[in-house]
Amino acid sequence: MENAKLERINELARLAKERALTDEERSERDALRKEYIAEWRQGAIAVLENTYVVTPDGKKTKLQRKK
To answer: Are 37 and 6 in contact (CB under 8 A)?
Structure first.
């Protein structure tokens, strides 16, 4: 996520502590948060898909996704 978007999320969070956000600001904040969470999930999934468990006998097994 771009630094400008992260800064905007933080700016809106600071504003929310000082005063009530307008409907436009609230919708912008929600959209930015959804985008941030989606990117975070993609990164976490990418890490987990490339993670292997090494057993005591030296075997490497890839993590399996729950169904």
So the answer is: no
Give the C-alpha distances (Å, rounded to integers) separating 51 from 44, 54, 64. Answer: 11, 10, 10
Beta bridge partners of 53: 61
pTM of the model: 0.74
How distant, in Å, are the alpha carbons of 34, 40, 65 from that of 30? 6, 15, 29
**Distance of alpha carbon 49 from alpha carbon 62, whole angstroms:** 8
Predicted local confidence at residue 17, as pLDDT: 94
Residue 54: predicted pLDDT: 93
